[in-house]
Amino acid sequence: MKPVVIVGAGPAGIRAARTLLDHGIRPCLIDENLRAGGQIYRRQPENFQRSAKQLYGFEAGKALAVHHTMDELARLIDYRPHTLVWNAEDGRLDLLDNGRAESIEYSRLIVATGATDRILPVTGWTLPGVYSLGAAQIALKYQGCAIGERVAFCGSGPLLYLVAYQYAQAGAKVVAVLDSAPFSAQCRALPALLRQPLTLAKGMYYRAWLSAHGIPVHQGATLRQIDGDQRVHGIRWGEQTLECDAVAFAHALRSETQLADLLGCEFAWSSLNRAWLPQRDSAGRSSVEAVYLAGDGAGIMGAEAAQMAGECAALALLEDAGSTVDQRRREALQKQLARIRGFRQGLETAFPFPEHWAAQAPDELMLCRCEEVSVGAVRAVVDEGHWEVNRVKAHCRVGMGRCQGRMCGLAVAEIVAERSGRRIDQVGRLRGQAPIKPLPFGVEVQP
Amino acid sequence: MALFKRLTETQRPALAFTLDGQPATGLLGDTLLTAVLTCAEHVRGSDFSAERRAGFCLMGACQDCWVRLGDGRRVRACSTLLEAGQAISRDPGRQP
Question: Which residues form a coiled coil (chain B) (predicted)?
């Protein structure tokens, strides 16, 4: 019999696997990482010594619970770490496991592919020493390293203050935090943020801790340029400059949706996420039969919501497969998810998307770091009359490279919309293409 | 010169490897990216201008940290753990 497959062993995928196993289904859990946990609860290599408290701070208890669940599951389910899903079609996933290619057919599929940083490129962003906020956090959490000696944190979103705080706590030199959101926006967001007072309090704690430790926090400060030759020498914003040798930046997170796209899921525009997202019902069913969506890969809501959504999707799957599930449990989960959605709205108010970014991006800014396509080159294609992102891609290769637009795709849409005078939801969405990540030559194929 | 700075977890066993043929040392549990960037400043040259790159996302999404190993494999440095004796070489990239 074909197995139930879950893609992604983060909070959503792990909870989904647990729920299925509790109902007598032994799933196959496929994960690209070496160790399960996803990004926020990413585990350090086994020979590292730091405690959960040191690694995850306030979230230590939750992280330990997720890891404990996974340690139990690993022996009981078909767990496949370090395995990339690079294509999906006709009820089958194509996998790459340590250079070995194989396929797996599924009866039902839960997609829990998570998120990456949302990047708005800035001059100098390809220099060695410039990383996404998530990357800076991984360097520390997973490897015990800082991305440089003197680090500046820029952009916006909850991760901005968290990672700056974690760096300073670990003994790194944090030279400044530049938050593109003005303080007034954060005040406006307070009513909605109070829906999760504990989460709000943690955010305020990081911010206050940084100030109390003499780390300059600039609000309403937009990173304009990263200077350097072979590596970072400094940053500029407004009329100010600052020396540093590393920069971490991002504007919140973006959902990783390429697999849902290859599966044929219908997408809809989400103004909250400012992105096209695969559609799902309140239980997590996608528009495609037997395909379910859970976690940040279907809209950014954070790790706690991801766990709830993972359980919801598993319960919906079980119900569709003919099992009896606890309806009250499902209703309770959906009620909690609704509350988190309200909080998410507040975060968007507190850290608003910098809508002026596209208009202010200089022509010479490198937009696509893989194919090395500039903002000016994209604008030139738009000026020839093209306004649909896939057409623009076909004309100038923007978003066509190794990363398949994961880093630049959202920014490309912003540039195309601004230049063509269209709304951001009117310029289409970059289609996913297999392989969604590069395959090396000489892949060994399992018969 | 190094790009990354080790802050903690420095008591791990050392692992010898080579970077572009030169002897280098990392620690057990390092990714290839950490091993390279704690003793050098970049991991590859870009595909169209040979511009120096040093990775970007560290979570296997951006594809800007591919390196070549002595056995012919090409791997993402951020998601591959260092092994003793590995010969890591950096692709210089292509000049326009």
Answer: none
| Chain B hits for A402, Cβ within 8 Å | 47, 62-64, 66
Our CA-based measurement puts residue B93 at a distance from the nearest CA of chain A, in whole angstroms, of 12
Identify the CATH homologous superfamily for domain B16-89: Beta-grasp domain (3.10.20.30)
CATH code assigned to A357-426: 1.10.10.1100
* pLDDT value of residue A445: 66
- Cα dist. A154→A119, A295, A297, A376, A392 in Å? 11, 26, 24, 24, 29
CB contact under 8 A, B60 and A140: no
Question: Inter-chain contact A407–B62, Cβ cutoff 8 Å?
Answer: yes
Which letter, b or e, does each residue of A132-160 get, where b requires 16 or more Cβ atoms within 10 Å of its Cβ?
Answer: bbbbbbbbbbbbbbbbbbbbbbbbbbbbb
Who among A143, A230, A442 is closest to B31 (CB)? A143
Model confidence at A94, pLDDT cuts 50, 70, 90, reads: very high
Place of tokens 């496949």: A80
**Nearest CA among B19, B29, B25 for reference residue A49:** B29
The pLDDT tens digits of the residues spanning A283-311 come to 999 999 999 999 999 999 999 999 999 99
Q: Which residues of chain A from 244 to 283 reach within 8 Å of chain B, CB to CB? A: 246, 256
> Using the beta-carbon criterion (under 8 Å), do A170 and B46 form an inter-chain contact?
no
Pick the CATH number of A130-251 from 3.40.50.620, 3.50.50.60, 1.10.3720.10, 3.40.50.300: 3.50.50.60
CA distance A438 to chain B (A): 8
pLDDT at A186: 80
Gap between the Cα atoms of A159 and A219, Å rounded: 15
**In Å, how far are A177, A344, A346 from A187, measured between CA atoms?**
19, 15, 10
User: Residues A169, A206: contact at Cβ < 8 Å?
Assistant: no
Distance (Å, whole) CA A73 – CA A79: 8
Q: What pLDDT band is residue A442 in, cutting at 50, 70 and 90?
A: low
CB contact under 8 A, A39 and B59: yes
Between strands A100-105 and A92-97, the pairing is antiparallel
Architecture of domain A4-117+254-323: 3-Layer(bba) Sandwich (3.50)
Report ipTM (2 d.p.).
0.98
Peptide bond into A435 cis (omega under 30): yes
Closest residue of chain A to B44, computed from CA coordinates: A128
Lookup: tokens for B61: 């999404």
